[in-house]
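Progress against Task 2.4 (sequence-to-structure conversion) is shown through the following example record, which the project officer requested during the mid-term review.
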Amino acid sequence: MENRSLVKALDVIESLGSSPRPLTAFQLSQTLKITRPTVYRILKTLTQHGFVTREEDGALYRLSFKLLDLGHRVLERTDLLEAARPILRKLSGYCRETAHLAVPEDGRMVYLDKLEGSGPFCTNSRLGRSVPMHCTALGKAVLAFLPPQKARTILVRHGMAGHTPRTIMAVSAMERELARVRRQGYAIDDVEFEDGVRCVGAPIFDHRGNPVAAVSVSAPASRMPLTRAHEVGAVVRDGVACVSRAMGWGSGASRHTAIVIPVKAGESVKRSVGFGRSLLLRKRPGKAPHQTKEVIGRG
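Structure tokens generated for the chain above:
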């Protein structure tokens, strides 16, 4: 049985956090359908404990930086961040596109880290934001390596809402898609979540061989055609295997044959990925001239 007082306080925090500007108690009361005296009591308690700041005029409230501090403490205790940052840096440099790290939580993927590429576009994603699993490369990369019944339960429980005309919205079609992801070791968001954006992602496994996170590379579809997406997907797949090993993954390799040994920067990966040539995980020569970046994707 949930604590209604605590739920109301959490609702106030959520509303303050999602608002682009400070709010009054009256606005919170109207939005949340909570009586104004109750809102005042909640705001007083949150202010006393440092989670909410009252503006100088006394009528407006906003979240304090205490929540940011707590969030950073959680991130600092996550070994995954330290293990994944080098490969994010390599992928972002090699592809010149944005690389993300995300973890599954409550049927969605939550961004933990992000590195922008050097190209003229940047994504409007933000750390802490959650995105659906069924229509993102990050989510499909994790779903594909979960036990089939668990993956199906997530899809049914959280739904498969359409975000673009390309979104897969049927469980049977998604199961075929996840089988393809398992075979190739990486997932492709083929403009399924954001119009004009294509992403590729691969899973990170823990010491038990469970998918606990995923890394992706995102780019405008015009700059990442499907053929290029498969090339990048193979590079992401091979690169994140070292992160899995850092998380203790080893014996799980026999169960996930699509995940292969990663390569060091500059070494050639001679894999049969359908292109008849080697793929290199290395920084491209030269650097694009400085340009104003155009933002793609939703925040």
